[in-house]
Amino acid sequence: DGSSITVDPNTVAIIRKSRVDKLDESSDTEISLMQGGLLAKLSAAGKEKSKYILNAGSSSSDLKTQNFYAESDGNETVKLTNYDGIADVSANDVTITIRKNEGTIVKEGEPPAPPIQLLPAPELAWKTQDSIIYRENVVFTFNSVPEAASYRVQYSSSSSFTTEINEIPLTTNS
């Protein structure tokens, strides 16, 4: 249905169920994240018609969103981040809903923490975002985000970011 899941290095995840109905173009998917992180990018059509369940640690999430990130330390803590739509997160008989640009933390044996508003993405300091650069060295300058402790800049030689994704951790805005 056009959905994809990007798995972080050293991640352990199990696809428990994956079914696609060609007649109504829906899918039924269940994934268990044991350790590491994964980014789910679900198709717009799939978001409306399909069922996506993500189990991580002691939590279970019903995803009605297109972009969702989950990270498990493999022991006690799961961090869940929703970038659009909604996601119902359940643990220990308590369910909360995280909306666009919200996240939560679930610790083993505890209900999900109340939703937390995510920080906004930094904006590039130059006007044109779709630039092709023919230089050996480039300085990326962006406006700092209040309360941000660090930043991660990702770059790729692939315009679709499907191969050769590189990452630079930063503590300043250039």
Question: What's the arrangement of secondary structure elements?
Answer:
Elements: E1 4-7, E2 12-21, E3 26-41, H1 44-49, E4 51-56, E5 59-64, E6 67-72, E7 77-82, E8 86-91, E9 94-98, E10 102-107, E11 116-117, E12 151-156, E13 165-170
Parallel strand pairs: 3-4
Antiparallel strand pairs: 1-3, 2-3, 3-6, 4-5, 5-8, 6-7, 7-10, 8-9, 10-11, 12-13
Total of DSSP H or I helical runs spanning 4+ residues: 1
From the N-terminal CA to the C-terminal CA, the straight-line distance is 38 Å
Roughly what is the average pLDDT, rounded to an integer? 85
| Radius of gyration of CA atoms, rounded to a whole number | 18 Å
Low-confidence stretches: none
Kindly state the number of beta strands. Answer: 13
What would the principal axes of the Cα set say about the shape?
globular
| Topology order in helix (H) and strand (E) letters | EEEHEEEEEEEEEE
Q: Main sheet? A: 11 strands, mixed
Q: Provide the β-strand percentage band.
A: over 45%
Structural class: mainly beta
Offer a few descriptive terms:
174 residues; mainly beta; eleven-stranded mixed beta sheet; 1 helix; 13 strands; globular
